[in-house]
Write a structure and sequence with these properties.
alpha+beta, two-stranded antiparallel sheet, two-stranded antiparallel ribbon, 4 strands
Length: about 100
């Protein structure tokens, strides 16, 4: 499983561990990932994603998973999240058509 956030595409960064004697050795800074179950109002089901805690705060700030995915750029999303975005857009487009007809 890759160490990459499915919503924000945050991944590992590379830097140096610097000792007291100023010796620099390579190290990796890993993103703070957690498995989270989101509730999609448009789809009417739960969705499990592996996201960073930063993305978790962003989803909460934007008003839920549906609102966040609709605002998010497609090139940052994982294939699973991109498929969810397409499904949500399709459901949102069907809702006004069902009310009108």
């Amino acid at each position: 499983m890759s160490r990459r956030c499915e919503l924000t595409a945050k991944g590992p960064l590379v830097g140096h561990k610097v000792s007291h004697s100023n010796i620099k050795t390579k190290r990796r800074f890993l993103p703070n990932l957690c498995n989270v179950t989101f509730i999609s109002d448009a789809l009417g089901r739960n969705v499990r994603l592996r996201v960073s805690t930063n993305a978790l705060k962003s989803v909460d700030h934007n008003g839920g998973l549906d609102a966040y995915l609709l605002k998010a750029r497609a090139d940052l999303l994982s294939p699973r999240a991109l498929e969810l975005k397409r499904q949500i857009e399709k459901k949102k487009a069907e809702a006004p058509a069902a009310k009108a007809g």
